[in-house]
Structure formats: C-alpha cells, structure tokens
Specification:
The chain is α/β, with parallel strands linked by helices. The longest helix has 14 residues. It contains ten helices and 16 strands. Helices cover about 25% and strands about 30% of the residues. The two termini are about 15 Å apart. It folds into two domains: about 160 residues, Medium-chain alcohol dehydrogenases, catalytic domain (Quinone Oxidoreductase, Chain A, domain 1, Alpha-Beta Complex); about 130 residues, Rossmann fold.
Length: about 325
C-alpha cells in the first residue's frame, strides 16, 4: 500500500511517500479500514519536528496522521459494534492505538472510531475528528455552555475554531471571535454574532462580562482573555495551562485541555452534523503524493478550516 512515513524528526523533507508498505492487520479490539480521506492537524507537524519527543517517543519508521474516514474491511478479535462495510471516521494515530492515517489502509482501535455522519462525504468526515472532539470537550464538558451565555472563541477561522463557533451557536450561546477583518464574513456565515480584528482591535477592551473563553492561540492572548470574563467564568486553553494566579485574581476557573477522542464524542459530533448544525470546513484537498505541500499550507497558517488528504485516486 501507499503511505506517508518519517524515519527521523525534521521539516517537511523528512516526509516520504512510500509504495509497497506492508498492509496492516486488525489486532484485538481493532478494525481494518480502507482509508479514503485523512486530515492534518497542527500536532502532526509538531510531532514531525520532534517537539513532542520528550514525552512521546516514536518508533521509526512511523506512518503519520491521526484523523481519517473510510470503510471497514476487516475485524479483529472482540469487535462487536462494527461490521464489514461500515463507513466510519475517527482517529488512528500510530502512537495511540492505531497504525497511522496517512495510508491507504489502517488498523484502528474501536474506542476511537464511530459511524461516519450519513450526510457528508469521506473527505468532509476526515476533517472532523480532532477538531470536533476538541470543541465538544471544551464547550460541553469543561465549560458546560448553555443557552443565553456569552463565549469568546479565539481563532475562529481555524480547524477547531470554525467547528467551535457552530457548536456554540447550536447550544444557543452568543459567540464572539477574533479573526482578521477579511475573515468577518466567513465567521459570521458560521454563526458568529461578533467578530473582532485582532490585528487592529483590543478584544479585551471591547468585550466584558463573558461567561467563557475558548482559546486556541495562546501566549498573551490567553492572559488578556481574563479581562473578558465575569467572576465565576471559565477559560479553556488548547495551548497550555492558563495562569492559576490570574485565575485567583479574577475569580474564574481555568482548564488546560488535552483533547481525548472517544466513540461517544464522535457519535455526538455525527449527531450535530446530521442535524445540519455543524458543517465541515475544508480549506484545501491534497493527494498523498502532495503531502509536503499540504503540510506547508498548514504551517503557513490562516486556513479556513482543515487541510485534507485524499488517500485514494
């Protein structure tokens, strides 16, 4: 089969498209999948560069990628919730119970997959797993966002932000987001009530008494976000643990989120997609052979949604 491997840490040049990689087999609690689409997340290029090697050791050569969508073609032992022919989506990273998504076939753990939403195609489904579960975990689990509350979502055009805006609106919240002015129409089409140009406006001066902030940016953006929250509010960050000292000072709760994918969240996401409340946001589609160009586009930043790989011609 064809797959994208790395044999060492580095820039995009370490990405190798290999023909003739051995097709995996489904082990206990796994399904074998014919992969039709995959998507790239920022963690994929950070992993490739070695930014995670202190806590996540890779056994080279390794097939890259986590998010995927495809069709079940084989079952391992003790698999009862899926059958051959099921259209599924989920996560199958090589460091988390799978064999890697940037390949024509993969073996994935059943606890990290679910039936694909029926009303979208494989490429659209492949764009959703990590960004969707991240948004759901933040908004529904950590924040417990409710109708009528106000939330600020940083990075509204990104993979996570573009889904989080839609989920927050589905929950009945008032949504503000930070983007460039040229992206105002895009995020308002997603459902944002208010857009702030982070290049020319100070969001911490414009917004007050918000119930929650969901931060995908980090740095000073995180610290300034405390000024937006009302007492008792909550700040969830995807990029590190927010300051406990500032949390005490402003009387708010903080969460540094590590996203946890599971079947339950993927099923909840599929429900939102099938009801029309969440629509996948694809920035651009590349083939496996174009994987270097795909990574460069992601690393350049400012996409509208996700960079997706088409695993089959």
């Amino acid at each position: 089969m064809k797959a994208v491997q790395i044999n060492s840490y580095g820039d995009v040049e370490v990405l190798e498209v290999i023909e003739g990689v051995e097709k995996p087999t489904a082990g206990q609690g796994q399904v074998l999948v014919e992969v039709y689409g995959a998507s790239i997340n920022p963690f994929d290029w950070k992993l490739r560069e070695g930014q995670a090697k202190d806590y996540l050791k890779l056994d080279f050569p390794v097939i890259m990628g986590g998010d995927f969508a495809g069709v079940v073609i084989g079952l391992g032992e003790n698999v009862s919730d899926f059958t051959v022919g099921d259209e599924i989506y989920g996560q199958a990273a090589s460091y988390a119970g799978g064999t890697g998504a940037f390949a024509q076939y993969l073996a994935g753990a059943v606890g990290k997959i679910a039936k694909k939403p029926k009303n979208i195609n494989f490429l659209e489904a492949a764009s959703l797993p990590l960004v969707g579960i991240s948004a759901l975990q933040a908004l529904e689990t950590h924040i417990e966002l409710r109708e009528g509350q106000k939330i600020l979502i940083h990075g509204g055009t990104g993979g996570i932000g573009s889904v989080a805006i839609q989920i927050a609106k589905a929950l009945g919240a008032y949504v503000a987001t930070t983007v460039k002015s040229e992206d105002f129409d895009y995020v308002k089409d997603l459902g944002a009530d208010e857009a702030i140009d982070y290049t020319s406006e100070a969001f911490e001066e414009k917004l007050k008494d918000f119930d929650a902030v969901f931060d995908t940016i980090g740095g000073e953006t995180t610290n300034k976000s405390f000024l937006v929250l009302k007492k008792g509010g909550v700040l969830v960050s995807m990029v590190g643990e927010p300051s406990g000292e500032l949390a005490d000072k402003y009387g708010v709760r903080v969460v540094g989120q590590n996203s946890e994918g599971n079947t339950e969240r993927l099923e909840r996401l599929a429900e939102l997609v099938e009801s029309g409340k969440v629509k996948p946001q694809i920035d651009k589609v590349f083939t496996l052979d174009e994987v270097k160009e795909a990574f460069l586009r992601l690393e350049k930043g400012h996409q509208h949604g996700k960079v997706v790989l088409k695993n089959r011609d």
